[in-house]
TrEMBL record:
<dbReference type="Pfam" id="PF01035">
    <property type="entry name" value="DNA_binding_1"/>
</dbReference>
<dbReference type="GO" id="GO:0006307">
    <property type="term" value="P:DNA alkylation repair"/>
</dbReference>
<dbReference type="GO" id="GO:0005737">
    <property type="term" value="C:cytoplasm"/>
</dbReference>
<keyword id="KW-0963">Cytoplasm</keyword>
<dbReference type="InterPro" id="IPR008332">
    <property type="entry name" value="MethylG_MeTrfase_N"/>
</dbReference>
<feature type="domain" description="Methylguanine DNA methyltransferase ribonuclease-like">
    <location>
        <begin position="7"/>
        <end position="64"/>
    </location>
</feature>
<comment type="function">
    <text>Involved in the cellular defense against the biological effects of O6-methylguanine (O6-MeG) and O4-methylthymine (O4-MeT) in DNA. Repairs the methylated nucleobase in DNA by stoichiometrically transferring the methyl group to a cysteine residue in the enzyme. This is a suicide reaction: the enzyme is irreversibly inactivated.</text>
</comment>
<feature type="active site" description="Nucleophile; methyl group acceptor">
    <location>
        <position position="117"/>
    </location>
</feature>
<feature type="domain" description="Methylated-DNA-[protein]-cysteine S-methyltransferase DNA binding">
    <location>
        <begin position="68"/>
        <end position="146"/>
    </location>
</feature>
<dbReference type="Pfam" id="PF02870">
    <property type="entry name" value="Methyltransf_1N"/>
</dbReference>
<keyword id="KW-0808">Transferase</keyword>
<dbReference type="InterPro" id="IPR036217">
    <property type="entry name" value="MethylDNA_cys_MeTrfase_DNAb"/>
</dbReference>
<comment type="similarity">
    <text>Belongs to the MGMT family.</text>
</comment>
<dbReference type="InterPro" id="IPR036631">
    <property type="entry name" value="MGMT_N_sf"/>
</dbReference>
<dbReference type="InterPro" id="IPR036388">
    <property type="entry name" value="WH-like_DNA-bd_sf"/>
</dbReference>
<dbReference type="InterPro" id="IPR001497">
    <property type="entry name" value="MethylDNA_cys_MeTrfase_AS"/>
</dbReference>
<protein>
    <recommendedName>
        <fullName>Methylated-DNA--protein-cysteine methyltransferase</fullName>
        <ecNumber>2.1.1.63</ecNumber>
    </recommendedName>
</protein>
Length: 152
């Protein structure tokens, strides 16, 4: 059984889902009625502070679904500091793989924004983003963090 909470943000309405005392999903829209818990209230508070520019690192228990490789990519994503970016190739080199599987794992990230897949760029530019709004949302998140200065 999982619980959800909702938050209106500059990148659209988010639905945050928790199960077994961990955040398991962040998605766009509102699919279920809210059932806030103390953990979800903390997640909402941290997301509000992030979007206000007052929080640079989330401190929440996370349990993203994914296979072993995807989990390794999610760990690497969490290590990218606020306001910084890297390329799919950079992550591929760290994990002894290729850029395409890194991109696929980023696209499968069930906890975007908190697990910052928006901080990963292609070698030649922006790259994709699987969240609502695609590249526009990625750009908005990067601008918020100051991590893509030539867009500002």
């Amino acid at each position: 059984m999982s619980d959800v909470a909702h938050l209106d943000t500059p990148v659209g309405p988010l639905e945050i889902e928790a199960a077994h005392d961990a955040i398991v999903r962040v998605g766009w829209g509102r699919r279920r009625d809210p059932s806030p818990t103390p953990l979800l209230e903390e997640a909402l508070d941290q997301l509000r502070r992030y979007f206000a520019g007052d929080l640079t690192r989330f401190d929440l228990p996370l349990a993203p679904a994914g296979n072993e490789f995807q989990q390794s990519v999610f760990r690497e994503l969490l290590a990218i500091p606020y306001g910084e970016t890297c390329t799919y190739g950079d992550l591929a080199a760290r994990l002894s793989t290729f850029g395409q599987p890194i991109g696929q794992a980023c696209g499968a990230n069930p906890i975007p924004v908190i697990i910052p897949c928006h901080r990963v760029l292609s070698a030649g530019g922006l790259g994709g983003y699987s969240g609502e709004g695609g590249s526009e949302t990625k750009i908005a998140l990067l601008k918020l963090e100051g991590g893509f200065p030539f867009l500002l």
